[in-house]
């Protein structure tokens, strides 16, 4: 095993890799609660049950997708990078595709499956590099930051801190109510833990907040600690079956935009995470990422597997950097994280009682972390600032990640042409300009 993971060459030990894998798991374990809560739309009242995914099935699908993705990454690419369903992508799936567009979740899962298959093809053919290089860095940063604001906004909304107001659209909620105060407590606690550099601060913050909520009767006590694994029957294989059952809903312009959005966000989220974590671990060589294709292939395979199980897009997690900080340097750490996700399947009763007021602080903090990419945008260049700003602001205000991406990608060629920099715009960007104009005309 030492030879397979090149542990001697990377000057690491079994102890460091196991501790690193455990640290990464604790740092991203919040997804086991947030993903089922998001995809089942439990925070949205008065919805037909047909619009909601089964909470238990999504929990199992989440844990399995994370386990398979992390283990594949560890064994194939040998990087200490773990995977799980992505926060921004699950929000797009639930709140934009299902809730706003009215697309059945079964059809949305098919979209995730298609995006994973396309990702595999792009990886195997080498087209990945061309597509990545065609989109300006500023727009990539803007997309990440915009998703962060969107996730934070959803967190504030789920907690009841921000509520609907007919006069000014949104307003401050009842901050003296018990559930809202629980969220405020959780947010302060998580901020303290993160500021102190506690690995797994988000997870521990949720755990302590849930215990406090149980003490004040704001969170239901779990009936048991360990149980059998929840069935995936309500979601397993639906993504494939839906292709043959409702082809009229699959092959549409709307579905094309949905698939492109899943693909785009996962594409660059994964690339950014791989580079960031590899840099931190000292694994980059000549400013290039060794075994990058294997890492991307593992990521795309995990997305396909997750879609078949019944969850939104699986992607590489930046929380893996916590494991690297704890000493992880090889794929063994990712394998350890994957095994821990498998073990978590048996603790569904504990995790299933956690409410949106407990998870809201995690969503807000994730939003803060994602918004950090705003600092990488050159705001002094107006032709760049306009599309970047519109991308960021349109996501939370329109309650749609796709709308934010479309807005920014339409304005970028326009501002660059007006600035006399049309030759700097890649032909693919002009193609995307046309696609997103049609998106607004025929879909919005």
UniProtKB/TrEMBL annotation:
It comes from the Bacteria. GO terms for cellular component: plasma membrane. Keywords: Cell membrane, Membrane, Transmembrane, Transmembrane helix, Transport. It holds the Pfam family Xan_ur_permease. It is a multi-pass membrane protein. It is found in: Cell membrane. Belongs to the nucleobase:cation symporter-2 (NCS2) (TC 2.A.40) family. Azg-like subfamily. This is Guanine permease. It comes from Domibacillus mangrovi. The lineage of its organism: Bacteria, Bacillati, Bacillota, Bacilli, Bacillales.
